[in-house]
Structure formats: structure tokens, C-alpha cells
Design goal:
The chain starts with a strand and ends with a strand. With 493 residues, it is of the alpha/beta class. Helix content is 42%, strand content 19%. The chain folds into four domains: 2-84, Barwin-like endoglucanases; 91-135, no CATH class; 164-401, Pyrimidine Nucleoside Phosphorylase, Chain A, domain 2; 412-492, Aldehyde Oxidoreductase, domain 3 (Alpha-Beta Complex), CATH 3.90.1170.30. Helix 6 crosses helix 12 (295-311). 53% of the residues are buried. It is globular. This is Putative thymidine phosphorylase.
Amino acid sequence: MRLVRVGLHSQGEPLALMRTDCHVCRSEGLHARARVEIATGGRRVTARLLQVEAGLLNPHEIGLSEDAWMRLGATEGAVATVRPAPPAASMSLVRHKLYGGALAQKDFTAILGDVQAGLLSDVQLATFLSAGAALPLDDEETTALTRAMVVVGDRLSWDAPRVMDKHCVGGLPGNRTTPIVVAIAAACGLVIPKTSSRAITSPAGTADTMETLAPVDLDLPAIRRVVEAEGGCIVWGGAVRLSPADDAFVRIEREIDIDAEGQLIASVLSKKVAAGSTHVVIDIPVGPTAKVRTAEAARGLATRLSLVGARLGLKVACLLTDGSQPVGRGIGPAPEARDVLAVLRGEPEAPLDLAERALALSAVLLETGGAAAPGTGADLARAVLSDGRAWAKFAAICEVQGGLRQPPEAAQIRAVTAHFAGQITAIDNRRLARLAKLAGAPGNPAAGLVLAVHVGDTVAKGQPLFHLHAASTGEIAYAIDYWTGAPAITVAG
């Protein structure tokens, strides 16, 4: 069959389009949503089949989505062979877990091998992730999954006795400390090759925010060049094959809105090991509407992260932090980037809570990395931030990554005001994140919202609570409709 690029975007799942009356569908008994293997030029891809009637394609043509086209490295009009895809043998292991069985190292290796080869459909991937959420992975399984996730990808190594990293488990809008922490650590001489993810269920991931300031889709040689030049980088992990199976998991987790603890631990630590890190500081925000709701749950997660990390040769330090409300003012890629710039530049209006959280994390990182003696990390971090060394280092990192740029501005900005005077007694992180996503974040980097209040503030009637940033009035309207039915900020009169 001849290949046709149909320009269909499928969010990571390879799709193939064939006519219902084509000879392959008839001879092989293929039906819509079947799995097909397409091969040409020595490369192959497994795709989900969609069927069309006459008109869009000729009988001897097969249309490919953008994801399938790129994976196959196809050329328009090239001849490809098409056959039913062989079943993924590892699904028997997924079913074993689903029915309450435990999985061993070899089992996870087999499953991850099929994930990396593209043999598991999105439905099958969702089944695997759901099984690990409903029947939580124990420490042995979590360690085995983490090792398997490292094995199927590339690994970096560095000529340094200590390679630092920092991570946040998420669930707290605006908590964009990574660029600040990396700048402080690198300015103090530490090696910190930071690979970050895009948003899973949030309005912005670190990579989304950083991309409004500098290129983040660097390959491995480029990452090495940046780190060798400046000591650190802040890049998108999905652009390289560091724990690549996790990228497939993240895409499905975004769809089904789950982030099970065992999978979270494996996702975090596999990327740290693959990046060549030896020491990592992990921020665990705790609050009633954060990802981790109680201090007890946070301590349990911290214990597991440290235990699994130790088994993989990582020294893990966890900080339990306040997750009762968003950090900073911006929520969304560009609004958060402006907060980061304000803190690094020492601007008078810089959000103090973001700066203080970044300094606390930096203090632990500096002491763990040997750049500061025990008990002196906080003073060193504050000095490096206040005297401009952190800003100079961040600007230098951005330049080597491809050039520092200004975050984009939203075309539409609308204030949402208080209906009556009172005190802000609570802010719902999840609802506020949903508002920012309805405004267009993170797909539109300029979209999101900018908070005007925090818990404890008093407001007058008509005073802005936040400003929505969006590309269109329609998106503003979507967000306001949601706000009307589910206000995220509680004002007690």
C-alpha cells in the first residue's frame, strides 16, 4: 500500500487510516480499532486502525497520523507492507497484576519492552496503570519497575563525584522553583543536569514554563554541551530517551487523571538515575487540595522514595512543604515564568513565597552537594540570589540552550472580583488549576491566571481575586462559567 500523510494529530498514539473496502482489510479481516503493523524502508510502527469510506483515500493507500508518520520516518507515496500486529505477550502479565498477582523484575522488563516497542495500545497502557493504582505496587515491585524504566532508555554519565537533582511531586499550582534552584546550585559550582516534564494534570509543567524562556527540546549532545559550559540545564526530558516509557505513561495518566504512588516513584527516580544523578532533593507539598493530602501520607511517600532511591544508588532528601495554597501569583506557563524572572532579578514585586520555597530547597541541595557546610546552606543560597549570581547563571544557561526570550502575553485578560468584602480563608488548588486549564493552559503558553490574593488577605467588594489570561473571549467565558459553579477561593464575610 502507498503511504499518505493525512495531517491527523493524535496526542502520541500512532493511527492508520484505511478504506473499509481495501484489499488488506478484506483479506485480513481487519476492523476499526484493530492494531496493524506498517513497515517500510527497514522501519516499522504499530498503529491503531481507523476505517474510512471512499473519498478520503484510494483503495491502495494507507493514511498515517503525524505520530505514526514521524516514527516510521515515512516519505509521501512510499510503498509499505501492512499486516495485523502480533499480540503483545506482556498483556498476560498485566492481567496477572490486575487479578491481584505480584510482578517480578523480568515481568516489568517484558512489559516495558513492549511499551517501548509500541506494542501496547492506549487502552492496554491504561489497564496497566490502573492496575498499579487499584492494587498498589509494593517496594519490591516499585524498585523493579524503576529499574525496567531505566533499562529501556539512554543514560547520561558525568565526570563529577556528585551530580545533583531536584524534583517536586506536584499538585501545587505555581510551584515553579526549579529554574531558581538550578540557577543557585549551578552558580555555587554544583553539577545539576535538570530534565523536567511537561504538564500531566496541571496547567503547566516545568518544561512548559521554561520553554517560554528558552528552548528545552535539546538532544543528549546539546544537554552535555550546556552542562559542561554552565554546570546545569533545564530541559524537557521527553526530547531525549531518558526513561522513554515514562513519556507514554504520562500521556495516559493525563487522559485518565491518575498518578498512583508506585508509578510516581518509578517515574521520578528512573529519570534521576537515567540523567546520571547521585543526589536528589524532593519537594512534597502537603495540603487538603494538594496531591498529597496529609503529613502521614507525605512521610510514607518520603520513606518510600528514600528506600527505593537507595536501592538504585541515589541519595534522596525529602522536604515536606506547605501545600495549602498556590505558590507565587502565576498559574500557567508564561504567568509562572514571569514570577521566576521577578525572583531571579530581585524585582520589588517578586512573590516572596516562591523565593522562600526555592531558597529552602536550595539550602538542602547546597549542603547535600558539599557546596555549603551543614547549617550554612540557607545563608549561601540567599546571598547568591540577592547579589545577582543566580540571575547571571540562569541567563547564561538560557543563552547556551538557545537564547533567553520573554514570555508571551495573553490576548485577553479579565479580572474576577470578590462579590463581597471579607477575608480569604481557603484556596482550592485543584479548582484553581482547572480554571487555568479552561483558560487554555498549558496548550496556549500565554494562558492561565494571575492571583491577586492569598489565604489570610482581606478584600473589599469588587476587588480582583485573580486575572484570567486567555487567547479568546470564549475561553474566558468557559473559565468563568466553571468559577460560577465551583469557586476556588473562599471569602468569609
